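Case study 2.
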Amino acid sequence: MTFEPGAELSADEVETRVEETLAENDVVLFMKGTELMPQCGYSRKALGLIGQYREEFETVDVLESLEEYRAALEPHSGRETIPQTFVDGEFVGGSDILEQLDERGELEAKLRA
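Prediction:
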């Protein structure tokens, strides 16, 4: 599947991408922007928290089809907010929950599960 920068994806395409990404990756961060250029503070914070403990993880920029990604992620997480972090297909949380886990010393173990 090729991706055209700037092209909005249909709801079906986004749903397929979400399902495939969750199935194929141990840790996934659905975020606004990219690793090199996060486009919101919450995404930047989540990226930094995960990056403390994992060198390799998948990121997905949701900005080009934001509403479609929100709708596709909601059944998996119960939330429409971005960013969202998943480990082994299970929702862990946004930057707020990642920060709480890190403060309690639980984030590293959660990301390496």
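The mean pLDDT is 93.
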